[in-house]
Write a structure and sequence with these properties.
There is one protein chain. The protein folds into 2 domains: about 150 residues, Rossmann fold (3-Layer(aba) Sandwich); about 60 residues, no CATH class. Helix 4 packs antiparallel against helix 5. The strands form 3 sheets. A 6-stranded mixed β-sheet has the order 5-6-7-3-8-9, with helices on both faces. A hairpin with a 2-residue loop joins strand 8 and strand 9. The chain is globular. The protein has 8 helices and 12 strands. It has about 290 residues and is an alpha/beta fold. GO terms for molecular function: ATP binding; ATP hydrolysis activity. InterPro entries: AAA+_ATPase, ABC_transporter-like_ATP-bd, ABC_Transporter_VariousFunc, P-loop_NTPase. It comes from Sphaerochaeta globosa (strain ATCC BAA-1886 / DSM 22777 / Buddy) (Spirochaeta sp. (strain Buddy)).
């Protein structure tokens, strides 16, 4: 954890549609440097996907946004405020669901009564709707629930909190297949132009057609922050049975039945939709954001 807070980082002038801005962030765990000169901008009204390899710093980045960790250099603003100052008016606009979480020995309804007052726009009716959709028994004790059931309770709570920013770290871990589908439907229905989601995940196939724009974290930097559509406008993905020429292809991957090839799009080119897994592999392999703006 950071040993101290940098005194009064330069103020950031944020546009109305910007929810988060991180400027020149440096962060280390003791002797291990994780971020150096990291920049990131997140705009309101989107469901962002945060992708990266194990150890890339995704969870650390999320905790910096929540004010649970302090950057050693640089400036962070969330809705024009510094999360490190832990101002109540900002904290009530952020809901953070970590990948691992302790829960008290109480029923879900008791948990609701204890914590919902911290969120001024909490919607008790919608909490009940979300729990019903997720098939959660509110009379069961939280500590006696499975991991998946616990996560459904907290997802329902977060969505019903009506915060402007929802940060979800690996939200589909522990969910069964029907629940993953319900998660996608519920998040999509809860989205408004005034809300912003940041979803960190390794399960990119669970998030297909939900998260966009995509943020890719690699080697201590944000190397991609763009929409899938912007990439699809420039590049095309095709399956070929013969080994492609490396000088004409941006990315190749051996797959069942041949080779998957990514190349620059021309007017005559038709191809397959670019999936998130391939997008991630392409960006990391080409590195340093050659396919998308940061």
């Amino acid at each position: 954890m950071a040993s101290q807070v940098v005194q009064e980082a330069p103020a950031l002038a944020m546009e109305m549609d910007v929810a988060v801005r991180m400027n020149d962030i440096g962060f280390s765990y003791q002797s291990k440097k994780l971020f150096s000169h990291l920049d990131l901008e997140i705009r309101r009204g989107n469901i962002y996907g945060l992708l990266g390899k194990n150890g890339a710093g995704k969870t650390t980045l999320l905790k910096l946004l929540c004010g649970q960790l302090f950057a050693q250099s640089g400036a962070i603003e969330v809705f024009n405020q510094n999360p490190q100052k832990r101002i109540p008016s900002l904290l009530q606009e952020i809901f953070y669901l970590p990948e691992e979480f302790p829960l008290p020995k109480m029923k879900a309804n008791e948990y609701l009564a204890m914590l919902s007052p911290f969120y001024p726009r909490f919607d008790h009716t919608m909490f009940g709707v979300y729990c019903k959709d997720f098939e959660v028994d509110l009379n069961q004790r939280l500590d006696q629930m499975s991991l998946g059931q616990k996560k459904k309770v907290l997802l329902s709570f977060g969505l019903a909190s009506n915060t402007s920013l929802l940060i979800l770290d690996e939200p589909t871990n522990g969910l069964d297949i029907p629940s993953k589908r319900q998660f996608r439907q519920t998040v999509a229905s809860a989205m408004t132009e005034n809300r912003t989601f940041i979803i960190s995940t390794h399960q990119v196939r669970d998030m297909e057609n939900l998260i966009d724009p995509i943020i890719i974290l690699h080697d201590g930097s944000v190397i991609f922050n763009d929409t899938v559509a912007s990439v699809a406008d420039k590049y095309v993905l095709n399956l070929t049975t013969s080994e492609p020429k490396t000088d004409t292809a941006m990315y190749t991957e051996k797959v069942l039945g041949g080779w998957m090839v990514l190349s620059e799009r021309t007017e005559e080119t038709e191809g397959q939709p670019l999936d998130l897994e391939t997008l991630f592999n392409v960006v990391v392999q080409t590195s340093k954001g050659t396919m998308g703006g940061v």
